[in-house]
What we know:
By secondary structure, the chain is an alpha/beta fold. The protein folds into three domains: 6-75, no CATH class; 83-91 and 355-461, Alpha-Beta Complex (Aspartate Aminotransferase, domain 1), CATH 3.90.1150.180; 101-349, Type I PLP-dependent aspartate aminotransferase-like (Major domain) (Aspartate Aminotransferase, domain 2). It has 19 helices and 17 strands. α10 links the parallel β9 (218-224) and β10 (254-259). α2 (23-29) packs across α3, α3 (31-51) crosses α4 and α5 (101-111) runs antiparallel to α14. The mean pLDDT is 94. Residues 151-153, 156, 179, 183, 224-225, 227, 257, 259-260, 291, 302, 395-396 line the site of pyridoxal-5'-phosphate.
Amino acid sequence: MSQTNPLKLIPSVDKLLSSAEFRDTIGVYGHTRTSESIREYLAALRVHVRHNHDHPIPNIANIAVTISTSLEAKNSSSLQPVLNLTGTVLHTNLGRAALPASALEAVTRSASGNTNLEFDLAKGKRGDRDDHIENLLCELTGAEAVTVVNNNAAAVLICLNTFAFGKEVCISRGELVEIGGSFRIPEVMEKSGCTLRELGATNRTHLKDYANVINENTALLMKVHTSNYEIRGFTQEVSYEELAVLAKEKDLPFLADLGSGTLVNLENYGLEHEPTVQEVLKAGTDVVTFSGDKLLGGPQCGIIAGRRELIDQVKNNPLKRALRVDKMTMAALSEVLKLYRHPEALIRDLPTIRHLARQPDEIRSIAEKVLPAFIKSAGDKAKVSIIPSSSQIGSGALPLDQLPSFSVQIQPITESDSALQQLTRAFREMPVPVVGRLHDGALLFDVRTLDECELLIDQLELFSWP
Ligand SMILES: *Cc1c(COP(=O)(O)O)cnc(C)c1O
């Protein structure tokens, strides 16, 4: 009895490539990638068939679907938009500040062609990329000069390296903080080539503690805004004013790492006061560093503002070249800063401020808008309700400040940890993943930061509840 060798039934690469079923795939992914993908697929199929002569051999149409699905999966980017409903407005893991529309347009314009990034159009000569934001930042902060690097960690690194390489930096023990896992002041100090001279006690530091450790090797006084934790009780720290006076007396520069670095008084929005860049400079601080994508609400960058002579030293440090920002960041930053010239409009035009300032009434009405879609989608699988909750600023700013908010609360009918985990994962697997937080055996979606209600409602309509 003769049986056809099943391997002979597998179509050839050429047959597949020339078939009508593959025309679209070749159109989208090209001949080279499609044929590579077919070759890999057929090699695997041959192995299966060799081991199991009964292994089914798919027809050309099925093979075409498999190949195009796999090419599509390989082509999709891992970086994608998500809806941040965690209740943390500036969520570092979710990319921090959302940029305003004007900044997005500027990014597109600058990235789609050439720009005068480092070209002085008036003089027809080489320019400095800081020129595009320096005047604006000086105007807004009161600084004499400004430069911008890749993030605030880079700003601290280059300042320490510029002002105190091979020398000592005086800093209070209460300010030797760790920010977001890998950024620890003592370690950054070491990598910058400086020696840390810690002083005072964790909870209390006095002006005389600084004066006592200053010696001929001291190059810099530093103060770090302990933005992500607060020491309460029997505490004492030395003010910016006092340190500025001491620094002047000893002829040393005084650097403040502000972290969040807001340009507006947050009390205007019902939040607690956070020292502004203007205030800290006015207190006599020589150089201030802060993030672009925290309370400022802009792109990731680190801003260094202060006395011209010191900023010039930073600009001339060879590290500046390694830490500089690109044209897209400059374009976005410049647009965000322009919004600060019209502070009353910030609450409307700058997403970070809009989200932080959102009042409970408005948040509740956003929750009410999306509630029916949640209820309909959940059916009898979960209880859905609106509950008061609290949001936080995030990225280390005002860690104890809880902002009154509202959340859509989802409690799966099957009360188990695994049901809750499964539900949380299903939301993360939506076309635009939705990220909430778990609290008290329920999944919470804090809608303070929700601007895309329609998108969420559309997704809920297509959602298959686990
Ligand atoms: C956030 C923060 C940093 C690091 O800033 P990035 O912009 O995240 O690099 C440094 N210092 C302080 C005090 C901070 O809060």
